[in-house]
Amino acid sequence: MTMLHLQNLFSFNTRVPINKLFFENNTHFSSNFSYKIRSNNISHLTLGIDHGIDSSSSNFIKALSDHQGDVLAKNEIGIIDFFEAKNLLVTGATGFLAKVLIEKILRTTPKINKIYLLIRAKDKEAAFDRLTSEIIESKLFKCLKEIHGESYESFIRSKLIPVVGNIDEPNLGMDCIISQQIAQEIDLIIDSAANTTFDLRYDLALDAHVNGAYQLMMFAKKCINLKLLIHYSTAYANGEREGLQYEKPFIMGESITKEKLTSHSPSAKFPLLNAANELDFVSKLKNSIKNNDEFNKIIKELGDERAKLYGWHDTYSFTKAMGEMVIDSMRENIPIVIIRPSIITSSYEQPFPGWIQGLRIIDPAIVFYGKGEFPGVYTNPYCLIDMVGGVPVDMVVNATMAAIAKHGNLQSPELNVYHVASSYVNPLLSSQISNYCYEFFSSFPFVNSKGDQVKVQKMKYFDNMLDYSNYISKELLNRHHEVEDSKMQKLFKRKVEFLKNCSKVYEPYTFYKGWFHNGNMQKLMEDMSEEERKSFDIDLSKINWRDYIIGIHIPGVKENVLKGRM
User: Fold this and answer.
1) Number of domains in the chain
2) Which residue intervals define the domain Fatty acyl-CoA reductase C-terminal in the entry (predicted)?
């Protein structure tokens, strides 16, 4: 599951909370403007028009999206029928993606039996409290509440069972008796647990994504009625591969570096990547270094070093790929579906347009830009980008439910991979995102604490980090040179450091040289009936990115994350 939070993303030393760095001035949206959500009848976006793209780039991009063609489903998967009377276990249950999945299952397949929700909590009471505050009372569930009226709470509590647990512990951290009961009952496991910080400490990332995958498979083997296990990974698990990336599983021992070496020299030798060895290596390192500060520094750098050695961009994508390897190596006869979304963004249509939980990936940059604090960006303007125009969360959920029904009915002991990403069927350039942000904030500007509307400028692009850093420093410090308060001056300097670190962390993605084939998604869509394609829409080719970003995504961030203020 590809869901990326702002908290703890950067390692530079500051005690100032991020909200104080950028939200200090109480900037808010101008009340003199309103915006309209786009209609459901949207046209396909043809790239290369009115965006300053040369003809060769235009022809190349258009060729990628023209393959989609007409989809004429002759049969149906039977999505709604499959979920009837089923029992599920969902890990990472209070996360962005899992909550949208739970809402959709309850709303469209109300005859499901039980959904056990693995929740991190100190005890059962705390888990119930999180269920109430983060799910039952969430705005996300308002449509379900309208459907059931006064019986809403009794309905949802009869279906959702909170369970105290932790993905990286034996029996997933569950009480022994409860884990035995669940192992006897469940038909499906949906693994949505992950730590989505790109530069997370290596030991913590290994625990979450590698040891977590191991513990998950150990528990799955105890589930006597298990029909399918669904694991959320990320399309960026493809690492430093370039060009078109197909939906291939990772095999233990493989690495991107080894692929590149053997493609040029078949006899070349390179160490095999083994997840167990990585866990053992970090464990021994931890025991040998007694000074916590020294260990924290070494382990932080180690994750990036190991990732780059084997051909991945960062600790996150590296450990997610190893997690896939663990699942494949342990699966035996368990049917597995691995869902690899790119970047998951706000809802496109269901349960309503624009719902999002937290600032994700490029959202902080969008907000900073609207506030006049992000005058330039470190990126290739012609990079095919899955970071905002990645994939709306409801389409990831729809693909998940369709894949569950398809492979749950087949129950074939295979591992199937689905790329849920837009770069192949409906590509978006980073320059287009900037243009759409400029268009939005020119029409719907923020208002600063003095009551003045913030005027944004066209984004400048940089392909050299030194030039970009110098530009950011000069621009931001010049804008705040009149501030004499030493504390505020320090705050502005920290803003500069924050943006530099932000750009450095995202550099592999803003200059990414690959795009993600989704042939299995296409086959899934062909298997669906016309009614299923309407109710469980997975057609990413039809999204008009301008309408989505201007009419849905940015307003959704404003309403659901910023709560109408900065």
Assistant:
1) 1
2) 491-563
